[in-house]
Specification:
36% helix; elongated; single chain; alpha+beta; two-stranded antiparallel ribbon; 12 strands
């Protein structure tokens, strides 16, 4: 009994406290309404039978029946919306389209930023132009990876610096066409194409018959999450730098470079050239380049030279059957087959000079002593492939050299190309001393081919000379005269000058 009395007194005290708190809250609310000019304030006096819970607009219980009105319908009390500015509206109005809940309506119309699912198309930078962006996509499509400095030399070498190139790269990055793959030790960024950019570059290069490099995909380690395949080896950097220096010197157009071009031999071995340049405007219709950082032995370079020499002596599959049978039975018979009927002419234009396709060895990141030792090995061991030959004749007066079956080989270093430029005298041809410009190193000296026909004594030297009375030399001498008068002595007046007349007199002489 005592416990029940204590419990009942506690309940009465709690109800009186709640009733007093409610009265205080209603008084504060009425005061707020009076300040903002609202007259119809809610009833703050408790209603009999509500249990002292609070004002009627806060109750959700039906009104109970009394003795005066015993049968009242059970009507649900409606809650009027709150008008207190400090309280969140109980019935928020419906917002218009393009406006999210909780935001005020704008008078300026719908904005695209209101919808986070609609992606904005970034605008191009002020310093970014369509030709520059196209050139960068083409360069990265050919060389796969490059730094801003290399791209500057490959696209706009006339500019004073690579600032515009970097601005255009950032613009392409905003359009998700390129990305930064890695940063080198010298803090230079290495840029590559994204999948979207690779597709754009493919559209630019394939219609022109230019091979596009393989896409560098983003692959992450399954455990660490680190980006894989970000190494930028020094050999690839040296190849791109060599092409950049050639283009900066005016040797080759941006679209005149190709990398990793395969040359299939008769035994199905494929010899891939690091770089192929076509620069007919610089009098270099075609040239193959091998970049060596002295990671290969000198004899390995001799084997590469041998493979290029063998590839230049191959016949196409649809060659004349008689010529193919003769070459198959006599390997040296290929020397009598014109170059227009050989395989290499199906892929490259005429070189404009005697011999096969020129080959250049560019040494990078090495010492001068190592370069000299390598060149000595190439000259000694590879003499069969680069050195000219004597014409097959019994006539002792014909001592000119035949360059038709040799591979013109020139050497230089990447440091010389960077310091002096590719158009300077930094090229050395095997078999010669001293350095020359590229065109001079590839050309055959006129004196070397024609001195034995004119000589110091002039035309009188051949007075009274008769051809030997043997049947075989006549054809060999005539072939020698044809080559000398048509190629080696071109531009020296020997095509219709004294040299050709002298040798023609030897062939037409009686006996």
């Amino acid at each position: 009994m005592r416990r029940t009395a204590i419990r009942q007194s506690s309940v009465r005290f709690t109800q009186s406290s709640v009733r007093q708190d409610t009265v205080d809250h209603d008084a504060v609310t009425a005061e707020r309404f009076s300040k903002i000019g609202v007259t119809n304030s809610p009833r703050t006096t408790p209603v009999e039978g509500d249990g002292g819970i609070g004002p009627p607009h806060l109750q959700e219980h039906p009104v109970a029946s009394t003795a005066d009105d015993p049968e009242q319908p059970l009507v649900q009390a409606r809650r009027p919306p709150s008008v207190d500015p400090s309280i969140t509206p109980s019935a928020p109005r419906r917002q218009g389209p393009g406006v999210s809940a909780g935001q005020t309506r704008r008078k300026g119309g719908r904005r695209r930023s209101d919808n986070p699912h609609v992606q904005r198309s970034p605008k191009h930078r002020r310093t970014s132009t369509e030709p520059r962006r196209r050139e960068l996509l083409q360069a990265l499509g050919i060389f796969q990876r490059a730094t801003p400095d290399q791209l500057w030399k490959l696209t706009r070498p006339d500019n004073q610096h690579d600032r515009l190139v970097r601005d255009n790269l950032l613009d392409l990055e905003e359009h998700q066409l390129v990305r930064i793959e890695t940063v080198r030790e010298d803090q230079r960024q290495v840029w590559v194409l994204t999948k979207r950019g690779h597709g754009e570059a493919k559209k630019l290069l394939e219609p022109k018959g230019i091979r596009i490099s393989v896409l560098r995909e983003e692959k992450f380690d399954a455990v660490t999450g680190k980006l894989l395949g970000t190494s930028y080896d020094d050999h690839a950097a040296a190849v791109t730098s060599t092409a950049a220096e050639l283009h900066r010197a005016g040797i080759g157009h941006q679209l005149g470079f190709q990398t990793e071009i395969g040359h299939r031999l008769g035994n199905s071995f494929v010899q891939r050239a690091d770089l192929v340049v076509r620069a007919p405007e610089a009098k270099v219709p075609v040239m193959l380049l091998e970049i060596d950082r002295r990671t290969e032995d000198a004899h390995d370079l001799v084997q590469k030279l041998r493979r290029y020499w063998e590839w230049g002596r191959l016949l196409p599959k649809d060659a004349d059957k008689q010529i193919a049978d003769r070459v198959r039975s006599r390997p040296d018979a290929i020397g009598h087959v014109d170059h227009e009927q050989r395989l290499w002419r199906r892929f490259y234009p005429p070189t404009g000079r005697e011999g096969l396709v020129p080959l250049a060895f560019v040494f990078a990141d090495t010492t001068e002593a190592k370069v000299d030792n390598t060149v000595a090995v190439l000259e000694e061991t590879g003499r069969r492939y680069w050195a000219p030959r004597r014409y097959e004749t019994y006539h002792r007066g014909i001592t000119a050299k035949d360059y038709g079956q040799a591979v013109p080989v020139v050497v230089t270093t990447l440091e010389q190309l960077t310091e002096h430029g590719a158009d300077a005298a930094v090229w050395r041809r095997l078999g010669r001393t001293g350095e020359q410009k590229l065109t001079a190193a590839l050309d055959i000296p006129v004196k070397s081919a024609c001195r034995d026909f004119r000589g110091p004594a002039g035309p009188d030297r051949w007075a009274g000379v008769r051809a030997p009375k043997v049947p075989s030399p006549r054809g060999s001498v005539r072939r020698a005269v044809t080559r000398l008068s048509g190629t080696a002595c071109a531009g020296s007046g020997s095509r219709s000058g004294a040299g050709s007349r002298e040798v023609r007199g030897v062939l037409d002489s009686p006996g």
